[in-house]
Amino acid sequence: MTPFLSGFMITLLFVGGVYFVAVLERCSMTGNVSWSGPARSFLLLFAQEEIKTRKHDKVFFETAPILFIGVILLTISILPFSRGSVVIDLGTGALFINAALVYIMVALLMAGWAVNGVYAMVGGWRALAQLIAYSMPVVMALTATVMRAESMFLTDIVESQQSLWNILYQPVGFILFYISALAIAFLPPFDLPVAEGELAGGVWADLTGARKLLFRLGRLALVLTLSVAVVVLYLGGWMGPWLPGFVWTFLKTLLVAASFFAVGHFIPRIRHDHLLEYNWKYGVPLALYNIFQVGVVLLL
Amino acid sequence: MAPLTQYLLLLGMGITTAGLVWMLYLIKQSLGQTLDEPGKDIPAESGNLAPKPAWLRYHVHYYGYALLFLAFDMEMAYMYPWAVVYREVGILALLDMGVFLMILFLGLIYTWTQLGLKRQ
Q1: What ipTM did this prediction achieve?
Q2: B6, B8, B21: best to mutate for the A interface, most A CBs within 10 A
Q3: Taking CB atoms and an 8 Å cutoff, what residues of chain B touch A140?
Q4: Chain B: nearest CA to A233, how far in angstroms?
Q5: Residue of A66, A90, A297 to mutate for B, most B C-beta atoms under 10 A
Q6: Do the chains contact at B86 and A116, CB–CB below 8 Å?
Q7: DSSP state, B42?
C-alpha cells in the first residue's frame, strides 16, 4: 500500500472511530442510538459562551486542553492499524504509550488548578491519586507483552501473537491492562476526577465552550486510543481471516470500546481510597505474578 | 523510516495540534463578545459565594502510596531493557530480576503490615 493511501485510511479510521465512540458513549448514557447526537453536542459546545472564572490561572487555563488532546493524538499516531501502515513506528513504542498517557493526569491536574474552583481542584488531586493507583499494573502488564515479543516495536508485539493471542497467553495481564485502561480514560467505574454525582463535574465543572469541547473530544479520542492499544497488545491487532487488516482492527476496536462503556453502565463508581488500596494490595502482586508466569512459560 | 524523521514527525504533530487548537480559540473569539453579567465568573460551588481561592494547602492523604510508587517506578526503568533481552539471556535473567523484584515486593509487604496501604 502506498504511503498516501495508508495515511488516508488511518485518518479515515481515526475520525470514524471517534464518531462511533461518541455514539457509543451517548448510547451508554441515554440508552438509545442517536447518529446525529455527536454532531449536535459538537455544535452546542462550539457555540457555547466562553466563561472564564475569576482569578483563574491564565497559563494553565489555556494550555491544559492543548496538552490533553496533544498527548492523545501523539499516542494514537504510534499505534499500528494494519501491517506496514503505521504513522510512526517508534523503537520504544510500548514505553511511549505509557510515557505519553501519564500526561493525561498532568493535564487534568492543570485544568483543575486553573479555574480556581474547589470542586475542580479536588478533581485534580483525585486525578493524581488515580495515576498512582493504576500506573504500576499498566506498566507491568506492558512489560510482559514486551518480554514475549523481545522488542518494544508495537508491530513486533502484534507479530508475536501469530500463534496465540496475548489474551490467552497472559490472561492476568489482559485483565489488569483492561481495568487500568478504564482508569486511564477515567470512564465510569473510575470517573473520579470528573464525577458527576459527587463533584458536579469535577475538573470539567467550570469549563465551557472551546475548552470543554477539547476535553470532551480528547476523552473520546482517548477511549479510541486505549481500545486500539488493547487490540494491538492483547487481541492480535490486525490479524484475522478473510477480511483486510484495517477492517479487523476497526471491528475489534469498536467491540473493545463498546465493552468499556458497558462495564461503566453496570458497575457503580468506586471510592478513590478503595481504588488505591485494591490496586496496591491486589493489582501490583497480580502484575508481578503475571511477569513471573510469562517468564517461566517463555523459558520452557 | 529513519528514527530522526519519526521524531520530527512527532514534533510536527504536536505543533500542528497546538496550532489547530489556537485556531479554534481565535474562531471563538471572532464570533463576538458576550455580556459581562455580575456573578457569571464565580466557580461552581453549590450556590455559595465564598471569596476564598481554591489554591489551599490540601491534605494529600495518599502520600504513603506516592512514596511506594516512586520506588516501583524507578524499578520499572530497569524492567524495559531487561524485558527486551529476556529470552536471549534465559534463566539467569529470571533469577536476576527475581531477586530484585523480591526485595521490592518485601518492601510492599512491609508497608502493608505497617498499615501504610490505607487512607491516611
Answers
A1: 0.86
A2: B21
A3: 76, 79
A4: 15
A5: A66
A6: no
A7: P
Candidates B72, B109, B115, partner chain A, best to mutate (most A CBs within 10 A) = B72
* B25, B54, B105 member nearest A117 (Cβ): B54
Q: pTM score > 0.95 for this model?
A: no
Q: How far is A32 from chain B (nearest CA, A)?
A: 30
Which cell is A267 given? Answer: 458497575
Q: What is the pLDDT of residues A245-270, one digit of tens each?
A: 788 888 899 899 999 999 988 888 88
Q: Print pLDDT tens along chain B (120 aa).
A: 677 888 888 888 889 888 998 998 888 888 878 888 877 777 777 666 666 777 877 788 888 888 888 888 888 888 888 888 888 888 888 888 889 888 888 988 998 898 878 777
